[in-house]
Amino acid sequence: MSASLALPGAAAVARPRAGRRARHLLPWLLLSPLLLSLAAFTYWPLLHTIYLSVVDVRLFQPDRFVGLDNFTGLFRSPSFAAASWNTVIYIALSLPLKVLLPIPIAVFVWCAGARMASLHRSILFVPTLLSFVVVAIVWIWMLNPVMGMVQSGLRPLGLQMPPLLSDAATAIYAIIGISAWKVIGFNALLYLAGLASIPRELIESMRLDGASDWRITRSLLLPLLSPTIYFVAITSVLFTVQQVFTPINIMTGGGPSNATTNLFYLAYEMAFESFNIGFASATALLLFVGLGALAALKAWLLGRRVHYA
Amino acid sequence: MTVTPFTTIGRRATLGAGLATLAAPALAQARTEISFWHYQTANVPALREVLAGFHEAHPEVRVTDVPKDVGTIATEVQAAALARRPPDVGQILARLTVGLVRNAGAVPLDSGEDRGAFLNNVLPRFREVGILDGKPYAVPHSFGTPLIYWNKAIFAAAGLDPDRAPANWDEVVAMGLQIRERTGRFALFISQAGRDVAQQQMMVNAGATMLSPDLTRATFATPGAIAAMQLWQDMAVTHRIHSTLSEREQTTLWLSGQIGMFQGSVASFQGFLRDTAGRFEFGVGHYPLWKDQPRRVPNSGSALMIFSQNPQRRAAAFKLLAYLMRPEVTSRWSWTSGYLPLAPNPLADASLRDYLEREPRWRVPVAQMQDTVITARWPGNRVVEIQIVLENMVQALMQGTGPAATLVPRAEAEVTRIIAESR
Amino acid sequence: MRSVAPLTLTPAWRAIGNILLFVASLSIVVPLLLVIATSLKPPIEIHGGLPWPQSPTAGNYVEVFDKIPLGLYFWNSAATTALRVGGQLFIALLAAYAFARFEFRGRDVLFALTLGAMMLPHSLTFLPTYLMISWLGWFDSWWGLIVPNLAAPVGVFLLRQHMLAFPRDLLDSAAIDGAGPWRALWLVILPNIQPALAAIAILLFIDCWNEYFWPLVITESEHAMTVQIGIRRFLDAERGDDLGPLMAGVVLVSLPAMAVFLWFQRRILETFVSAGLKG
Q1: Among A2, B71, C181, C211, fewest CB within 10 Å belongs to which?
Q2: Which one of C131, C236, C239 has the shortest CB-CB distance to B255?
């Protein structure tokens, strides 16, 4: 996809030598702030994390190389097993909710009348505008088993709401649900944008051939949406664990009894509550490798099915 | 130079830089400026009152107090020390002090001009909290002691004497059952705000010691402690008098008068006075005894440590500590903030005596100073992981994952392992 | 949106569709209406029965400013967001231009690295960045919030897409007038990609205004805290009778993003469509 905008006119204009050299330098000058920022705050920290995961940082002495000690110590930590398992659950359950469920939502909005569609689009975008902090606060209050809004609705019916967030069996599902609630609308709008750009003629020609709704969906809509679905799937794998940080931090703190923690949250706790830099870096590294492998696997599995128009 | 978008944006950046430096610490003047990091977010006015007194007594020193979050202040001190920018004085949770001696370069408190004489203003048994290898590194500041609070209206509704505290834990259970049966409310809420504080208090009170004297092994899985933890589980799972809702939910319920008893620190007292005013009256009682054993409760709270590497600022920090430990200061600080008095003879202070006349409930924590032992101080650089082990132990107990006889020894082994692997 | 439905759904499917959309919309709208309703309730009604206030009052909106220094938090958020988004746009504009307009050795590798940075999760970079900020003395300051986040690969990507689609004639005519590439950027390209720039600015704004993790790590005192951290602190300190002010705070914190959205509603969706997520 590389296009260069060559300007034949410019070449014909006589320019001094310095000007030509300046033009060779110009792209680099333009890129320098970005490259500097990426180097300093993205790529160097990446390398430094790898370094920190294999050393022991000490206060008034130089760092000591400890090899894989941080990793083995981490594996023996009971929180690690729970965090790893929960990470898998977070991703596995988030994918259907965040990737698949928005598809029918988008299709139905696309088929709705113009005014309804506009209303739905606005509503679907609202959770994206809200911060996760706000979302967490709202849902804490909604789900409070004694004084929350849902309970106020159930009480007249004689029902009692279960303590979803303080029960180890349900807490993680509550968090997954809340994080899905926040994201589904946005993903549906992404799909909707994809659907809206399908040329009307294609559909009409398929209809003339006698195609049913299902056939149109299967042979036209899904393949045309596949790059978007692919994009949403990959980003969900990579970013779900990070997205749920805020609800976990505000609503459960990783508990009860490690029920809602995950590798990202564990890395944060190790870094900022334990100040155990080695373990935190080792956790971060493991998480990255794990997510990278998952994303690559997904890319390979789905990549074969993606169609580009 | 012609004005292009570039220069306009350049100007904007400069303005931003100027504005941003407003957030940076003020320039040092002729006075010595020291920073005091604390977590007294709830008591800032009272603390500032104390600091105002210090500034009057020592005009050559200026203290900037920085409120921080109790959960991360120890980490931040370590990070700042690593970046060569530690606070001059930090308020550190008592159980984390040992870890910070090595990891943040804490200064021995007998290295000041008075050779640690100011420490004599603190009750000897409290001073233990800061002593490591025979040297003092931390001085008590905001000590708490566990109490039991109860909602008098709920007691009355359940047919209990509203002015009588439960004397021991068996009575707590009996009263709790009565509350549940007669009023249908939750009977008890043991605060777990400090991650590992409540369970330590219960186990130590039942006769256990948390750590071996050389700080290398956890030793808390004694029969008494296991029985105490089993009682906690029974209260939650079998008797259902202790709810398993989150700390935040239960605090709200207690404050809106829907829980019978609350077991928490004296530090909550002032806040409760404010938040329950007009809703319900609460009683304050001693931490319940375990069977017939004498009361033995670890303190909660924090100690102050000095981290300055600069000699001038260090000297100023010593002045601050010496002032803060004056008996009249600690006694007054105690009843304005809700923490324990620290002086060997607190009743010598007139303001405290007056307060006790006005608020007789406060005699309970003052009397309990004599039953206080020092909290466990976790060694090494993995203290918060140790706390998390204990926190998870209690959460597992309350979820009914297993009996105390399994969970408590397992936690003890885990803590010992972490200590062995710490540095 | 076309006026004729692209799929002719059977009544059964149409019913399912309506239910699905109805449930989805309700699940979004109802909690938010409840929040607004609660924020308007006077203290006596807070734990009362009806969801909506009998005698609505704006008192909570005043009280929240007494409970927490919300004005200061707003100032911190507004200033750091404006500076950061401004910086991000500027840097992304220059970089996108470089990638789109020029050919130079290593261009594609550098672009791949830029995209790669977009995919790197926070977990891998936050700790060393925190240590670096601490070492620089920028902890708990606006600098710490702004500087580490000035690279916005998403912005670079989208702007480059738009620039690649730029009609060549305009650039050619500028060249004939003697404008070098630098002036072409400002005089020719910039005015014409303003819609895309605006849309990206809005997305970056929302991202920055709503950010939680990084301000949580970096800020400590109220002088640097953003509204998100501030409102979270309020939640922790909230004692049960602060629910009204808390909800008022929640509404206030969400207003800027809402306002920005309503104003630029169409532009955001347009940019996504035309940038072509198919590619």
Answers
A1: A2
A2: C239
